[in-house]
Amino acid sequence: SARGVSRAELAERLGTSRAYVTKLLEGQENMTVKTLVRVANALEMKVAMKLVPRQRASRPVTSGRSAGASKVRAAPSRRSPAKRVAVAARARR
């Protein structure tokens, strides 16, 4: 799990069941911003959000930093919301 915390330990920190934590982490349960903040707090992390304009599907995806390609996704991520948070947190270290 993220930051070396097991699902059971995360469930205990959140005051919920391991089954619910599993559903959150696997994307089977919708994660609200409130829940995301609770998870971040339990993992001693903070939540950082950024609102960016949507990319139109008809525009080609370009390569190179000058076009901001590092922030462009050609397809939606298949990772669960919790895994995207964990990946983003690791990338910021």
Written overview of the protein:
The protein has a single domain (2-50, 69-92), classed as 434 Repressor (Amino-terminal Domain) (Orthogonal Bundle), CATH 1.10.260.40. It has 4 helices and no strands. It has helices at residues 7-14, 18-25, 33-42, 81-92. The protein is elongated. Residues 67-75 have low confidence and may be disordered.
Summarize the structure.
This protein is mainly alpha-helical. It has helices at residues 7-14, 18-25, 33-42, 81-92.
The total domain count is: 1
Low-confidence stretches: 67-75
- Give a count of the beta strands, DSSP E runs of length 2 or more: 0
Helix coverage percent: 40-55%
By CATH, the superfamily comes out as lambda repressor-like DNA-binding domains
CATH class, named Mainly Alpha
